[in-house]
Structures are given as structure tokens and as C-alpha cells.
Amino acid sequence: MKDGLVVALGAGLGATARFWLSSLLDAPLSITLAINLVGCFAFGLFRPGPFWGSGVLGGFTTLSTFALLAADLPTGTAIFYVLLTMVGSVAAALLGRRLSA
């Protein structure tokens, strides 16, 4: 139960940070991509525990916004955005891991 509360508190902070950053800039595709890449990089670099990992970074990164944005794009652009996000996110996590070693 304690870990669940820790994750929930972290997720609230991460989601609030994402919302705040997203509201500062009027570029939903690029800000969502940047948030997901930075979050994946941080996961790989720091390999955080429940509060910072599943909580803060889990709340900060966002699959649901990414999916909604991609669904509203023309097909070719959506495919490019999905591939860029998926490949970029895995590459960012791997780079973070490599730099932490």
C-alpha cells in the first residue's frame, strides 16, 4: 500500500509538470515528443525507484496524449510521428543507460 501511495504522489507531480510545460508552448506535437524523449532518457540514465520512476516520470511521460495527437494527424504524418516517438524513446532510454554505466 505504501508504494502505491508513493507512486500516486509522484505521478501527480509528473502530470502537473507535463501539463504546465504543455500549456506554456503552443506546439502539442513537439512538446509531447520532447517530454516523452526526456522522460525515457531520464528512466535510462537514473533507473529510478517507484516515486521518481513509475510516479514522477510515469506521470510526466504520456502515451495517451501521444496517441490522441497521432490519431488526429494525416496518415503519413501520423506514421512518421509514431515511428519518431517510438524509436526516439527507446534510443533515449538506451542512451541514458549507456551514459549511466
TrEMBL record:
Residue sites binding Na(+) per the record: 58, 61
Compartments, as annotated in UniProt: Cell membrane
Predominant location: membrane
GO BP annotations listed: cellular detoxification of fluoride
InterPro entries (UniProt xref): FluC (IPR003691)
Any one GO molecular function term: metal ion binding
Transmembrane feature ranges: 27-46, 51-71, 77-96
Record carries keyword Membrane: yes
Substrates-to-products reaction catalysed: fluoride(in) = fluoride(out)
CC annotations in GO: plasma membrane
Pfam families: CRCB
Membrane topology (UniProt): Multi-pass membrane protein
Keywords (A to Z) from UniProt: Cell membrane, Ion channel, Ion transport, Membrane, Metal-binding, Sodium, Transmembrane, Transmembrane helix, Transport
Annotated control of activity: Na(+) is not transported, but it plays an essential structural role and its presence is essential for fluoride channel function.
Function: Fluoride-specific ion channel. Important for reducing fluoride concentration in the cell, thus reducing its toxicity.
Family: Belongs to the fluoride channel Fluc/FEX (TC 1.A.43) family.
NCBIfam families assigned to the protein according to its UniProt record, in alphabetical order: PRK00134.1 (NF001101)
Name of this protein: Fluoride-specific ion channel FluC
Source taxonomy: Bacteria, Bacillati, Actinomycetota, Actinomycetes, Mycobacteriales
